Amino acid sequence: MRVIDVTVDIDAAFKALADPIRRSLLEALTKTEFYCHIDGEEVNGICVQDLSDMLELPQSTVSRHLAILRHAGLVGHLQKGVWHYYFCHTNVVRDIQAWLVSLMKQTAQ
């Protein structure tokens, strides 16, 4: 059996992805058309307020789920003044996908 070296914490990522609210948040964060603008300049992320409005959830709930996604490495964070913006770490999602593809190849052999 071959061991695959993954830099991503697969356990934390799958635990984070096990919740439908976190999956919805991650999906929203992949859509750059929802990225916020400050004085006409695009910020590479979506603020908690906008995510809360999108998912029709309280900001405290969204913030709690974003913290779990951040801990798993799936989401990044940027602060500008008092505003917090979140974005998807697409490279981490790709690493997880590559691990799953590799696993599938191993089971097909």
From TrEMBL:
The organism of origin for this protein: Sulfoacidibacillus ferrooxidans
- Which PANTHER family does the UniProt entry name for this protein? ARSENICAL RESISTANCE OPERON REPRESSOR (PTHR33154:SF18), TRANSCRIPTIONAL REGULATOR, ARSR FAMILY (PTHR33154)
Alphabetical keyword list: DNA-binding, Transcription, Transcription regulation
Is this entry keyworded Transcription?
A: yes
Q: Where is the HTH arsR-type domain?
A: 4-108
| Highest taxon of source | Bacteria
Gene3D superfamilies tied to this protein: Winged helix-like DNA-binding domain superfamily/Winged helix DNA-binding domain
What parts of the sequence cross the membrane?
A: none
Q: Which CDD domains match?
A: HTH_ARSR
MF terms from GO for this chain are: DNA binding; DNA-binding transcription factor activity
Tell me which InterPro entries the record gives: ArsR-like_HTH, HTH_ArsR_DNA-bd_dom, HTH_MetalResp_TranReg, WH-like_DNA-bd_sf, WH_DNA-bd_sf
Q: What is this protein called?
A: HTH arsR-type domain-containing protein
Matching SMART domains, A to Z? HTH_ARSR
